[in-house]
């Protein structure tokens, strides 16, 4: 397993534990904090995805040139 898979799995376990604790009446993490955290993580992920899916970096521009050279773009 790579780092990303381990991180996703850890977040899943924490979310499940939090959900179970909320079901039995314990408020472990304030809702405002969770909402803010989700907003920050989502924003960072969207920026990362936009960067990776465009030819903005020097490496990306070189990849685009190669694709155009071979008629794949």
From TrEMBL:
Keywords: Membrane, Transmembrane, Transmembrane helix. The keyword Zinc-finger does not apply. Pfam families: Holin_SPP1 (PF04688). Coiled coil: none annotated. This is Phage holin. The keyword Nuclease does not apply. It comes from Parageobacillus thermoglucosidasius (Geobacillus thermoglucosidasius). The chain crosses the membrane at residues 9-27, 33-51.
């Amino acid at each position: 397993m790579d780092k990303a898979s381990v991180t996703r799995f850890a977040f899943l376990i924490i979310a499940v534990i939090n959900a179970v604790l909320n079901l039995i009446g314990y408020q472990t993490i304030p809702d405002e904090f969770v909402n803010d955290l989700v907003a920050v993580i989502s924003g960072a992920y969207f920026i990362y995805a936009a960067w990776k899916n465009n030819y903005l970096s020097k490496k990306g521009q070189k990849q685009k040139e190669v694709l155009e050279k071979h008629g794949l773009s």
